């Protein structure tokens, strides 16, 4: 029986055959190093900002005890909060985006809490507001930087075998080599492997595992078994209760996909969100505030550039500098999208041909505009009007919407949020034409992932990644 599995070591470097000096602690103890590093960053940034602020503005050092007291309070709240969110566990070393996001949210929450306590108890007058605000910004920046650097050092040390990980007996129902290699990349030490044969009894399975445990000094037994065979796995666990070694179960491909989804507790037990509702009123307000702020500032800052582009389009080829086309927006509501004209045609209606690489319909200026995505800038007006968002699934021509709705069953779900100027699909390589249905399906999968996993921080990440993509100038058309 063959079961597809997602390697738990995706994205980590291979182990180097040459091992250098080991770190003086195990992989499970690296959480203490991360916590100590966070405390050091808090104390250092509090002293630096407090002393620096007072020296620059008042000409003296100020009360160092106040800086240390505020830093101690911040560390005393921040470190336990991150620990409760499992930010110092082994899992926190791999998904760095989630780790740094948790640090930022915890930092903001504890700072606001301390300011509220100081205001309520009327002790905030003892602290300089400028020094506290400087600490809030500098401290978070330093904490983020040191966490990023330290995490990379730990991951590299794990890859080189410098940090000893848990010693495990791996029990598999299929090919053991791929999962064993993945465990080694994550710093685990294999005390033994057991491959189960479904033609054997559960008692024989248990005997094989117990034989691998004898004299191995293993820290745990790690089961890599299909979840569809849970009744047999339960029988195996009953047989293994005689050993004091903990037994852990890895998720198979199906379970891993479900467990990554948002979870909430109900009276019937935990539920996993397979399809999220449209954004709540608060989430829509936060997203709209970001849209208006960024679009407004961008339009004002880039007004000279927009004027130059409009003039260049008019001089390069006959026709208007703006191209308007009907698109479907939130809940399928139609709107008119604004773009700088980059082609000699103005197609709109029941038949629209996608632009392709080397398309002769693209003008000389249009080719340059498309390579830099400058032709999309007028859509900032659509954002201010409320037709679009900065981030969301890219809107397609209505003719293409009709076509792909018939071909791709999940296509219409893209309209559960406002369309965007850029999106998760675009920063993951799906920018430009999608000439085949397979490519469009992959783009839709990324759009639907964004809808299911939306967060304010994800929007900010996509904005940053879009800016980085645009720095790498390339000729798309």
UniProtKB/TrEMBL annotation:
The chain crosses the membrane at residues 32-55, 67-88, 100-121, 127-145, 292-313. NCBIfam families: EPS_sugtrans (TIGR03025), WcaJ_sugtrans (TIGR03023). GO terms for molecular function: undecaprenyl-phosphate glucose phosphotransferase activity. GO terms for cellular component: membrane. It is an enzyme of class 2 (transferase). PANTHER family: COLANIC BIOSYNTHESIS UDP-GLUCOSE LIPID CARRIER TRANSFERASE, UDP-GLUCOSE:UNDECAPRENYL-PHOSPHATE GLUCOSE-1-PHOSPHATE TRANSFERASE. Residues 287-471 form the Bacterial sugar transferase domain. It comes from Salinarimonas soli. Keywords: Exopolysaccharide synthesis, Membrane, Transferase, Transmembrane, Transmembrane helix. Its EC number is 2.7.8.31. Belongs to the bacterial sugar transferase family. It is a multi-pass membrane protein. Pfam families: Bac_transf (PF02397), CoA_binding_3 (PF13727). This is Undecaprenyl-phosphate glucose phosphotransferase.
């Amino acid at each position: 029986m063959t079961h597809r599995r997602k390697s738990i070591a995706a994205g980590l470097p291979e182990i180097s055959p040459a091992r250098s000096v080991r770190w003086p602690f195990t992989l499970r103890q690296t959480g203490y190093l991360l916590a100590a590093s966070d405390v050091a960053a808090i104390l250092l940034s509090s002293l630096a900002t407090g002393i620096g602020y007072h020296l620059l503005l008042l000409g003296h050092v100020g009360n160092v005890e106040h800086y240390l007291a505020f830093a101690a309070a911040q560390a005393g709240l921040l470190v336990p909060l991150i620990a409760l969110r499992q930010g110092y566990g082994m899992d926190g070393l791999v998904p760095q985006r989630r780790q740094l996001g948790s640090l930022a949210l915890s930092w903001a929450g504890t700072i606001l809490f301390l300011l509220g306590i100081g205001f309520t108890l009327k002790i905030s007058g003892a602290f300089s507001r400028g020094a506290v605000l400087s600490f809030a910004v500098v401290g978070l920046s330093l904490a983020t930087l040191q966490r990023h650097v330290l995490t990379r050092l730990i991951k590299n040390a794990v890859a080189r075998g410098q940090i000893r990980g848990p010693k495990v007996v791996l029990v598999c129902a299929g090919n053991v080599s791929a999962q064993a290699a993945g465990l080694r990349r994550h710093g685990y030490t294999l005390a033994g492997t057991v491959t189960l044969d479904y033609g054997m009894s559960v008692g024989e399975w248990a005997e094989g595992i117990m034989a691998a445990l004898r004299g191995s000094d293993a820290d745990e037994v790690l089961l890599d078994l299909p979840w569809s065979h849970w009744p047999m796995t339960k029988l195996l666990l009953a047989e293994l209760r005689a050993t004091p070694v903990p037994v852990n179960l890895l998720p198979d491909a199906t379970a891993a996909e479900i467990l990554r989804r948002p979870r909430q507790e109900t009276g019937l037990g935990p539920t996993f969100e397979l399809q999220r509702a449209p954004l709540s009123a608060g989430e829509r307000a936060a997203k709209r505030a970001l849209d208006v702020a960024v679009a407004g500032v961008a339009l004002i800052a880039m007004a000279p550039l927009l004027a130059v582009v409009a003039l260049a389009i008019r001089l390069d080829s006959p026709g208007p500098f703006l191209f308007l086309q009907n698109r479907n927006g939130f809940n399928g509501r139609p709107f008119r999208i604004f773009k700088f004209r980059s082609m000699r045609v103005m197609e709109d209606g029941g038949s629209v041909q996608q632009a392709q690489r080397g398309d002769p319909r693209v003008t000389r200026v249009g080719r340059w505009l498309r390579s830099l995505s400058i032709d999309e800038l007028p859509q900032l007006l659509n954002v201010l009007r409320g037709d679009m968002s900065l981030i969301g699934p890219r809107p397609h021509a209505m003719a293409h919407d009709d076509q792909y709705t018939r071909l791709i069953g999940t296509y219409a779900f893209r309209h559960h949020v406002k369309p965007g100027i850029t999106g998760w699909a675009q920063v993951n390589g799906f920018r430009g034409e999608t000439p085949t249905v397979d490519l469009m399906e992959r783009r839709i999968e990324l759009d639907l992932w964004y809808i299911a996993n939306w967060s304010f921080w994800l929007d900010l990440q996509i904005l940053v990644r879009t800016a980085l993509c645009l720095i790498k100038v390339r000729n798309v058309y």
